[in-house]
Design goal:
The complex is a heterodimer of chains A (224) and B (214). Chain A has one domain. Chain A is globular, with a radius of gyration of 18 Å. Chain A has 9 helices and no strands. With 214 residues, chain B is mainly α. In chain B, helix 2 packs parallel to helix 7, helix 3 packs antiparallel against helix 4 and helix 4 runs antiparallel to helix 5. The chains are: A mainly alpha (224), B mainly alpha (214). The interface between A and B is medium-sized, with 32 and 30 residues.
Chain lengths: 224, 214
């Protein structure tokens, strides 16, 4: 059994590396995501102006920007396989769960890169007050986890429908509304110096539930 | 046929007693009456979505398309009753809180549930091939149901809400009059039978459609 487990970990790792490499070759997804994030950030900060004394608005705008940037780009992990017709080949060498886990890790890494560029820029452009780093990063990290988990599962489902691109955001967003709500509440609370425990708990529970249920569902994503 | 008449008489009789005889809750006053429609609708929403999730699990397990019929029908009805709960809640909020929509945690979470199942129906509509549609819809329905318990049961406990919970909140600010309680539970039973009847109809339509297509 440890042999099987380690070989499937190796497969997941191989898929993650393959994803990173094919992304790095074209950088089309990453470029699009970062460009979209920075552009929408510019639109938001330009039209709303600097607002160092409005943590409520800042929290809302930050999460909306992040969510939109993620939704604009995160379906491509599976859609790309469909468009280049490489999914069958991938399925010959790996089980559905391994494929999905590899893609999940890739999506997490992808989001972290997008956030590493977007979030500091957002804080600078809006003149936001200094964040409480541990709290801020905890909330952001848990949000990222939920975002990646739901995007991976929904992305795999959407890739098999007729209207791939158009449907992805519409189907993902409702699932992410609880993340948006508690993410915004928690981010605002850390700026206001209030306790964030309730929000963190909700975010963590939701992330764990999404990940756990996804793991059970990955095996049913493909068939034929 | 006998079911249909029975359900009709049951709900009509309860409605008559609830609207004409049952007393009003002091705080809620005339708006007490919405309780007999609003809470059963919300209850049926949760029951229907739970039934949809359960049948989705069974479909993935057994691969029996009849399970998918049940899952789809329940999701449609859950969506419908969710709209009913949202609208009656909004009407109540207008007279008690002074605005149709206030983003109270209760309002927020029911609206999220509405959107999630709207997405489920949109997704269903865009998948070709009934096996594939059944499988992918089941996957989405199960992941969607992950959001329901936190939204319905956890969010209103964590964030402060103005929503009166006379049933669940047993330490309650509002004590339920026995008459109100009878009408309420009778309505709950009536709605549950109404749902199971509508569900059986919808499932039959799905089955006939499939036979027609074959």
């Amino acid at each position: 059994m440890p042999n099987a487990a380690s070989s499937s970990a190796a497969t997941v790792w191989a898929i993650l590396r393959k994803e990173c490499r094919s992304e790095w070759r074209t950088r089309y997804g990453l470029n699009a995501a970062v460009l979209f994030a920075v552009t929408s950030l510019t639109a938001v900060t330009f039209s709303a102006g600097r607002m160092p004394d409005r943590p409520d608005l800042l929290a809302a705008l930050l999460w909306i920007t992040l969510l939109f940037a993620a939704l604009a780009s995160m379906s491509h992990a599976f859609v790309r396989e469909m468009e280049s017709r490489t999914l069958l080949l991938l399925r010959l060498v790996a089980s559905p769960t391994e494929i999905a886990l590899g893609k999940l890790l890739f999506n997490i890494a992808f989001l972290l890169v997008v956030e590493a560029i977007t979030v500091p820029l957002f804080l600078v452009l809006t003149g936001a007050p200094p964040v409480r780093l541990t709290q801020f990063l905890t909330i952001l990290g848990l949000g990222t986890l939920s975002l990646a988990a739901s995007s991976t599962l929904v992305g795999a489902v959407i890739a098999q429908t007729r209207s791939r691109g158009a449907l992805f955001a519409g189907v993902s967003l409702p699932l992410l509304l609880p993340v948006l709500a508690s993410g915004v509440a928690g981010t605002r609370a850390q700026w206001d110096g209030m306790p964030i425990l309730a929000d963190v708990r909700l975010l963590a529970a939701y992330a764990v539930a999404l990940l756990g249920v996804s793991l059970l569902l990955y095996d049913h994503l493909w068939e034929d | 046929m006998i079911w249909r008449i029975g359900i009709f008489l049951w709900i009509a009789a309860t409605m008559a007693v609830a609207l004409l005889v049952a007393p009003l809750v002091p705080v809620l006053q005339e708006t007490t009456r919405v309780l007999y429609f609003h809470i059963p609708s919300a209850w049926i929403t949760v029951v229907a979505l739970g039934w949809s999730m359960l049948n989705s699990v069974l479909y993935l397990w057994r691969r029996d398309l009849r399970r998918d019929d049940h899952a789809a029908a329940a999701a449609e009805l859950g969506f419908l009753f969710c709209i009913a709960a949202t609208v009656t809640g909004s009407i109540w909020a207008k007279s008690m809180w002074g605005s149709w929509w206030n983003w109270d945690p209760r309002e927020t979470s029911i609206f999220f549930v509405l959107l999630i199942y709207g997405a489920y129906l949109a997704l269903r509509g865009s998948i070709e091939g009934e096996e594939k549609r059944a499988r992918l819809s089941a996957v989405y329905s199960i992941i969607a149901f992950v959001a329901v318990p936190p939204l319905i049961f956890v969010v209103p406990r964590i964030y402060s809400t103005l929503h009166p919970d006379p049933i669940i909140n047993t330490s309650g600010k509002i004590d339920m009059d026995p008459m109100i309680r009878w009408c309420f539970f009778s309505m709950l039973v009536g709605f549950t039978f109404l749902f199971s009847w509508l569900q059986s109809l919808r499932v039959r339509v799905f089955r006939l459609e499939r036979r027609l297509a074959a």
